[in-house]
Amino acid sequence: MNINDFVILPGSKTGTSVRLKAKTVRELQLEKVQLETENKEMEKKLRQLQSNMSREKEERKKSSAYHWKSGQAGPMTIQARVLSQSKENSNKV
C-alpha cells in the first residue's frame, strides 16, 4: 500500500481516511499536469501582453510632439474678449 492512495475527507469528524481508486489518482495527476500546462501558457500570454503594452507606451511617448498642450499664449479672439469682459463684469456685481 502506498500512502498516496489515501485521502482524509474534510467532512469526517474522526479523521478517517478513504482509499482512492487508482483511476481517480490518475485523473487527478492528469488534471494537475493540464493545469500546470495552462498556467505556463497563461504566463507566456501575460508576458507577451506586457511586452506589447510597454512597446506601445514607448511609441506614444515618442509621438508626443502632437500632444495638445494647454496654456499657450496667443492673441485673444473677439469671442474670448467678450467672455472675459462679461466674467469681469459679473464678478464686480
Question: Brief overview, please?
Answer:
By secondary structure, the chain is mainly α.
Structure commentary:
The protein has helices spanning 22-62, 78-92, and strands at 6-8, 17-19. It has 93 residues and is mainly alpha-helical. Helix content is 60%, strand content 6%. The model has no long low-confidence stretch (mean pLDDT 76). It has a two-stranded antiparallel sheet. A hairpin with an 8-residue loop joins strand 1 and strand 2 (17-19). The chain is built from two helices and two strands. The longest helix has 41 residues, at 22-62. The relative contact order is 0.05.
Question: How is the secondary structure organized here?
Answer:
Blueprint: E1 6-8, E2 17-19, H1 22-62, H2 78-92
